Amino acid sequence: VPLREKNLISHIRRSARRSKAVLTGIGDDCAVLRFPPGHELLVTTDFSIENIHFRRAWHPPELVGWRCLTRGLSDIAAMGGEPLAAFLSLAVASDVPQTWVNRFFNGLLTLANKFKVPLAGGDTAQSPSGIQADIVVVGSVPKGRAVLRSGAKAGDQIYVTGALGGAAATLGLLMEGKRVGKAYSPYLRPLPRLAIGQWLRRRAIPSAMIDLSDGLSTDLAHICQESHAGAEIDAAAIPRQRPARDKKPVALDLALNGGDDYELLFTSASSVPSKIAGVQVTRIGLITRSKDMRLLAADGQPRPFKAAGWEHFAQSS
Ligand SMILES: [Mg+2]
Predict the structure, then answer these.
(1) Does residue 286 surpass a pLDDT of 80?
(2) Which of 99, 204, 225, 289 has its CA 20 to 30 A from that of 30?
(3) Maximum alpha-carbon separation in the chain
(4) Cα 226 to middle of ligand 1, angstroms
(5) Ligand 1 centre from 234 Cα, in Å?
């Protein structure tokens, strides 16, 4: 067994031993999971590919590992679900040092431990070039209660958790080769909003929900498309990340279009508290009958609001 495979196996053995959901983890052909009765299964899979989702020169390996799992857990949060176990397939080229792989696992497993999600299986392979990681997270939600993207109705209010644009602002610093201070920790350690997603689902508050992985404009467009509705967003209401040292909030464009924030966006006809699980929740607009998206600028004039997708940095390579 090559060193890296042994390494993965030992990580999985240690991680899965502590979990009640995992009956059999590594050492058999499949993991055997215990599933809560009266629930439905949630499954999500997300790639983290070098030079698409991260750059080795810019992103510390711990961040890449942490964010790899965040992407999966955040999808479970967006359904109002509870994660049961994670599975990782990792392909690494021969020129990638073992320390990179170890630090990647440190980041991923620190987050896994924080949310008590066992890494219950995986596979490793030698990649012809670069690093490719695919995370699968399985979770559960009470039968018929998964919060979908398709339930938004005209007249529902639109809410977001936390503040937006911090990840894109931090990426800008990393690209310029600047040091990234603690103020930007939301990007370095984005936390999946699992507690908020479950809190909302238990009270049947959201009519639709999505996690902000690709940016507000793109992810809101997904809600509109699946719900056959439109949206009007108030630019002044959007909570922008405000790094502590720098009093100015990040640029509006970063909050509108920057990805990797992993906050939740949801719609609701019910009243919504301004804080859930210690996190600020902000009303940013309204679901409309017309199918397009509009942005109310500072002058009060509505402008067309288009999905300006977070292309990661595929195009800058
Ligand atoms: Mg998602």
Answers:
(1) yes
(2) 99
(3) 64
(4) 13
(5) 23
